[in-house]
DNA sequence: GAGTGGTCTAGACCACTAA
DNA sequence: TAGTGGTCTAGACCACTCG
């Protein structure tokens, strides 16, 4: 394996090592070569190797034990859908091994309601772009999603292609990049339109996320109301205990 | 502020800087001194400062912008309960500004059922310790929790003090440390005993977590079935978008 | 005791942003 | 263009685990 320089070396190492783990070249449960070995093998400094290993450790793909070695965890690879990587439904569906498709339901420009004004820090009577969509996994509807963007952000004129992740919509039409998001997590019964769209019973609970997305200047970009059918698409969370 | 050497310098810096941010010495939205300035101010290398800042960035307390500077985020501090730090209900309740108390309901030794045998990788007819508890926030019951530990792990004889986080129980009685956990997240209607314990209606949905805890050798330690009243204790998740 | 990961330094160069 | 954070190196010493 050759290390190219144009991209950060540590990132390339992450990709290479992750692939070796997933392919089984480094079997689950086995010990990786020592940091010094890897460093000389790839002809980089140990610090660079450690940066790469830190990423893999954050993904819980490996465990590092001082005085012992670096070991490959077997369980994380078995998980398909999990929060943590990116908060991107399309990615999560594809990661579960299914075909993801985004079906637009409604795109409209309208006045913001009080909650939206508050959350998005916009003035009374400001216009917002409301995007309602359904995410399908192998053509089965699994997520009902409404996203609200302040109209003032929308630099590019329409028509908008909303069959893509919200991240791309913001990039293409608002030139804004999401830095982080905060989700408020709830269990709820589906409103009628959601139940209908997801083919669910009105008395079957499902997950709801109230999301706020921010750019790296801490400005709110988008608000989201997302209904997630956890029976159709399992949702996993992985936690470190330092 | 004095830097002591016994603990990792980077960790001390995290604590100091976090405190300066929380106290308002570095106001929200303002720019931190540059990495070089901080390095000479604390008389450490820039690499060490960067390690500390990386931690604060992972907590979303700061944003770093190449060519610009390091800025303090204002929103994260306003969130009380959130997953990510530690998957510890007691900590989460206290972090929301309320008094946390753990009330034992039932502690018993019994045979493992099939699901438990599978998840915990133990043999048929193996014994497990079942711990049922309720978490109270300001004396209001908010979480119903059942934890299953293989009896073979329990080195110390009872009586067990189960009014403490599962992490401590495992440390004290099993000499085992949790390295990471995987949670399966669901919306559900409460079983009768849960509804009763949490004073909930049977038709009001709530969150359920099916948890598995592992040590750093990738062995399953504990299984958890947790019912979380998200109306009484809001649950937030913060995501990075790299 | 040998070998591992954990911490830390000093210095270098690059990529980017703002004034 | 000056100053910022991003990347990378080479080397040092420490703390820990294991045989």
Write the layout of secondary structure elements.
2 copies of one chain form a homodimer.
Chain A: H1 9-23, H2 35-42, H3 46-58, E1 62-65, E2 69-72, H4 89-95, E3 100-111, H5 114-120, E4 127-137, E5 140-150, H6 166-174, E6 180-188, H7 192-198, E7 206-214, E8 220-228, E9 235-240
Antiparallel strand pairs in A: 1-2, 3-4, 4-5, 5-8, 6-7, 7-8
Helix pairs in contact in A: 1-3, 2-3
The first copy, chain A, binds a DNA duplex (19 and 19 nucleotides) through residues 8-10, 34-36, 44-48, 50-51, 53, 64-70.
Explain what this protein looks like in three dimensions.
2 copies of one chain form a homodimer. By secondary structure, chain A is α+β, with helices and mostly antiparallel strands. In chain A, 27% of the residues lie in helices and 31% in strands. The first copy, chain A, has 2 domains: 9-78, Winged helix-like DNA-binding domain superfamily/Winged helix DNA-binding domain (Arc Repressor Mutant, subunit A, Orthogonal Bundle), CATH 1.10.10.10; 81-238, Chorismate lyase. In chain A, strands 3-4-5-8-7-6 form a 6-stranded antiparallel sheet. The first copy, chain A, has a two-stranded antiparallel sheet with strand order 1-2. In chain A, α1 packs across α3 and α2 (35-42) crosses α3. The first copy, chain A, is globular. At the A-B interface, β6, β7 and β9 of A face β6, β7 and β9 of B. Chain A binds a DNA duplex (19 and 19 nucleotides) through α3.
């Amino acid at each position: 394996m050759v290390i190219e320089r144009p991209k950060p070396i540590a990132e390339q190492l992450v990709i290479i090592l992750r692939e070796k783990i997933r392919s089984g070249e480094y079997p689950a449960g086995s010990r990786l070569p020592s940091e010094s070995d890897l460093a000389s093998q790839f002809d980089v400094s140990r610090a660079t190797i450690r940066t790469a290993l830190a990423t893999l450790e954050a993904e819980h793909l490996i465990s590092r034990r001082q005085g012992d070695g670096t070991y490959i965890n077997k369980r994380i690879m078995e998980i398909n859908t999990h929060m943590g990587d990116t908060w991107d439904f399309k990615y999560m569906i594809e990661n579960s091994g299914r075909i993801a498709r985004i079906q637009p339901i409604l795109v409209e420009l309208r006045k913001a309601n009080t909650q939206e004004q508050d959350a998005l820090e916009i003035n009374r009577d400001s216009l917002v772009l409301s995007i309602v969509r359904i995410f399908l996994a192998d053509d089965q509807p699994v997520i009902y999603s409404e996203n609200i963007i302040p109209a003032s952000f929308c630099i590019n004129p329409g028509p908008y292609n909303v069959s893509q992740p919200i991240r791309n919509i913001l990039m293409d039409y608002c030139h804004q990049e999401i830095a982080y998001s905060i989700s408020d997590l709830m269990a709820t019964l589906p409103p009628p339109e959601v139940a209908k769209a997801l083919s669910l019973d009105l008395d079957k609970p499902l997950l709801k996320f109230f999301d706020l997305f921010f750019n790296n200047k801490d400005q709110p970009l988008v608000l989201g109301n997302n209904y997630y059918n956890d029976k159709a698409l399992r949702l996993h969370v992985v936690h470190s205990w330092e």
